[in-house]
Predict the 3D structure of the following.
Amino acid sequence: AEAHIKGNSEYPHIDGMVTFKETKDGVMVTAKIHGLPRSKNHCKGRFFGFHIHEGESCTGTRLDEFANAKSHLNPNQCPHPFHIGDLPPLLENNGYAYMTVLVNKFKIRDILGKVIIIHDMPDDFTSQPSGNAGEKIACGKIVK
């Protein structure tokens, strides 16, 4: 499965792909994203919240372009950061992020048709219900 990621109107240069490959140990999630906002501090990059949401569309309103992404995917009603949609943050490096992580919280069939969101701030892994990760700046629908 895969999701083509596109930025919102404020971040139109964000573009990339997230792929999902099922293995015997879980799902390998690989994100290759470019056009991310760059850190202004030369001593560090930026972290971006990265989650699978329960919505099935990267549409929304003028105030929230991805409002129809809804909340984090959480069919088991677990507290944050233990939703099945909670993923590690992306680390920006000169506007680019590459990450691969193995996740055993879901199977591909559980996420097909859902959307994956990049937020403009890092997930704090504490705040309920969604980690205080800020605005949704990019979105992609997960398809086969």
Helices lie at 108-111. The chain is about 5% helix and 35% strand.
